[in-house]
């Protein structure tokens, strides 16, 4: 059965080859060490910048590589095929899109080239100890003072938090104005009195990703640090940009499903029990036949989503469907695959075991899947 994604072309094939070679040389050999130290090497970001993979779909005039969403999707796919969950390009690219679509011209010119080159690493800080799904309940504030804005509060579970040089901080500029009082603040973390990175959190998976707590104690930022230059636009900006993030999570989910299937087929072909290879048992064949069918459906669906992103017509319901359905499927498929590895599937030296642990959070971050269903239900 032959299938090529309708958005693939010769130029993207060349780009994929280059990314694959980069990942094999600069990512795969270091995964174990990054897991131990709980973050990638800072140098990787510079190398990724030189390679042109950090902002693959941001216009050249802002330092990006000038590609389409398909280019960015290829980067995420190749990282997933190589089993990488440490290099936080996903969040970095998400932040770049906030700046591209919601920032002032000055903010775009200042930050996008630095993000493209890897001179700055980006993070986005929404979640707080007391508010994750219910973002309107955040308590961080950014209050206007003569010198600019003073930010106070704490954030939790922030991807890229340890290495980030630029953090989009969700804060209340008018604490009594509900959703209309929320703004996104651009915070540069170098030489930033009052800013503190807490511990890198110990997770069950994605061990090489620097997920952190962050603390803001009277952090002063200039008056022009409000994303887009106008206070109170934060909630609208979040709702506008979250579909990009959710589609990306779907892209990675499908790549993980494809990888799990491939690893499992290889394993059951060579592993023997009761005098035959596991693949000769009807249960194995039926389970893998079902997974291959589901992987094909998932691929067809995500290709439609990628095409919609490329055409600029992705909507919030479809992105929520991609995020919820594909991440649920990813966890189910990887669990079934792990079963076919037997005890080896439970050993961390086997990639399927890591994939199992890495996958679980896909149903939680980017908006829990229950929240995705609420969003989809609103469109009924
Ligand atoms: C590894 C990792 C990386 C992350 N990276 C980032 C990041 O970079 N930036 C960032 O800001 N955040 C990040 N997060 C936070 C993540 O987005 C939140 O954990 C997520 O939104 C859920 O919020 P919460 O943990 O506060 O759970 P809660 O809001 O307490 O929800 C707990 C559970 O309750 C249920 N629930 C909640 N609301 C509803 C509802 N309305 N209807 C039905 N059920 C509901 C869901 O099952 C949900 O999982 C990350 C989290 C992890 C674990």
Features:
binds flavin-adenine dinucleotide, single chain, 380 residues
Describe it for me?
The protein is α+β, with helices and mostly antiparallel strands. 49% of the residues lie in helices and 14% in strands. It has eleven helices and nine strands. The protein has helices at 10-26, 31-37, 42-51, 69-81, 89-102, 105-117, 234-270, 282-311, 316-340, 351-359, 369-378, and strands spanning 122-125, 141-145, 148-158, 166-172, 182-188, 195-200, 212-221, 272-273, 276-277. The strands form three sheets. The chain has a four-stranded antiparallel beta sheet, with no helix packed on it. A three-stranded mixed beta sheet has the order 1-4-5, covered by helices on one side. A hairpin with a 2-residue loop joins β8 and β9 (276-277). The protein starts with 9 loop residues before the first helix and ends with a helix. The structure holds flavin-adenine dinucleotide. The site of flavin-adenine dinucleotide has 22 residues, from β1, β3 and α11. Residues 91, 123-127, 132-133, 157-159, 203, 206, 211, 361, 364-365, 367-368, 370-371, 374 line the site of flavin-adenine dinucleotide (FAD).
Which SSEs are present, and which pair or pack?
Blueprint: H1 10-26, H2 31-37, H3 42-51, H4 69-81, H5 89-102, H6 105-117, E1 122-125, E2 141-145, E3 148-158, E4 166-172, E5 182-188, E6 195-200, E7 212-221, H7 234-270, E8 272-273, E9 276-277, H8 282-311, H9 316-340, H10 351-359, H11 369-378
Parallel strand pairs: 1-4
Antiparallel strand pairs: 2-3, 3-7, 4-5, 6-7, 8-9
